Amino acid sequence: MSNTISIPQSMLPEDGRFGSGPSKIRPEQVSALVEAARSPLGTSHRQAPVRQLVASIREGLASFFHLPEGYEVALGNGGASAFWDMACASLISRRAAFGTYGSFSAKFAKSAASAPFLEDPVIYQGEMGTYRLPELTDGVDAYCWAHNETSTGVAAPVRRIDGSRGQGALVLVDGTSASGALPVDVTQTDAYYFSPQKAFGSDGGLWIALLSPEAIERAANVEHSATLDGARRWVPPFLSLTSALENSRKDQTVNTPAVATIIMLENQIRWLNDNGGMDWATARCAKSASLLYSWAEKSDYARPFVTDENARSHSVVTVDLDDAISANQVVAALRDNGIVDTFGYRKLGRNQLRIGVFPSVEPADVAALTACVDYVVERLAD
Description:
This is phosphoserine transaminase. With 382 residues, the protein is an alpha/beta fold.
């Protein structure tokens, strides 16, 4: 049925990419790759041209996040998924507590549960479409959750758990689909980490972490101190946060990175900072998200999935459709017209649209998208 629907050209967004990750890459970032075709693409990542890009990334992120005194920017290969394992190896001493409320917030907890050198984690589980922060727990040395749950479109607060400092516990927050799109006070965390394929408009495969002095000290102690049984914890070189930080201070990664990712990331960070940094980026995302939530609330057939307005994400918006309307058909019809990646998270299993509204997405294109959805739904009902 979707093949019979042709949306008028005048209604279409100028750019039809609304993915929740990988997300839209601006043409200027691609132009930066073309300009780098002779150098630094295809050259050593340990030489000046690439290291200068990494230095710009680290300096740009320190500015964007208003990095506090003593905090450092570290980066390495593998994406946020690798950082979960790195945190298990290098940042959790014995036991962690997790807030889980979706697919991605639960994955870090699963990594900790499978680590043979850690005690079983304490899980504070929330319902889908809500968030749940971990609570102060005896014997815990790290509290972990996601700033934004990509699978459900839920944004959670970022604040230290009351009493956690007295325990000497760290706060580790996954900012993958939040960083660059949602406001954050990094002082409330010890590791705020993310991958660049969302608001930072690049490809995946890289992790970035904003580390407090306490996190840096914890990693050194865990990696070099004896455990209770007298043995040292085996930390593979790839998962050593200390090694990653030492290399980051030299503006390089431990292993060979995808230089194209670094080029696009550096370009995006400069673009964000040149336009006004975090304040500008988060306001732009909030505007786009508001367009979608307002449209859904006024619609006869759509409604926001997240009922608590304070928990609604401004980076990934989820909208439920009435059962009489197939979200799959709507998504397919949109794709036929060049509007892509509006599908819901498959494991959530809802009749739903999921729209990425990261800074690279023009608010005017979001407004056009709502009109196109209405156009498609009206014709599907005929």
